[in-house]
Amino acid sequence: MKNRSVCFLFTFFLIPLKGLAFGNETNLYLEQLQPVCWYQDLRYTQGAIIKQVDKLYVCSHRYANQPQSQLMWLQLDENGNPIRVEMKGKIRVH
Predict the structure, then answer these.
(1) How far apart are CA 58 and CA 85, in angstroms?
(2) CA-CA distance, 83 to 63, in Å (whole number)?
(3) Neighbours of 74 (CB within 10 A)
(4) HSE of 56 in the Cβ direction (CA atoms, 13 Å)?
(5) What is the rounded distance in angstroms from the CA atom of residue 42 to the CA atom of residue 25?
């Protein structure tokens, strides 16, 4: 019984100290979750262009009609347009 009383009093006196120890600080995390492309352990956001040997690549969505699709490196053609991956299957509704 004595151990319970000591534990209760110890906890009772520590609760107000918790508020004093941490204060009312606001933590601001600037690194937000956003899709990125990786190249040589560096992160690149959408629209970034890199050059490998003699070819240019852009970080863009995998599919043009799906803006929430994953980002990937797409090769650019002579006009600067990305060469996109074509969808493999078709959805049919009967």
Answers:
(1) 13
(2) 10
(3) 20
(4) 12
(5) 32
Per-residue pLDDT tens over the stretch 47-94: 999 999 999 999 999 888 888 888 999 999 999 899 987 777 777 787
Dihedral angle sign, alpha carbons of residues 19, 25, 30, 33: positive
What is residue 82's three-state secondary structure? strand
Give the span between the Cα atoms of 57 and 87, in whole angstroms.
20
Distance CA 45, CA 61 (A): 11
- The residue among 3 and 36 whose pLDDT is bigger is 36
**Helix, strand, or coil (residue 86):** coil
Radius of gyration of the CA atoms of the chain, in A: 27
- The answer to whether the CB of 48 falls within 8 A of the CB of 36 is no
How far is residue 24 from each of residues 17, 20, 59, measured CA to CA in Å? Answer: 13, 9, 41
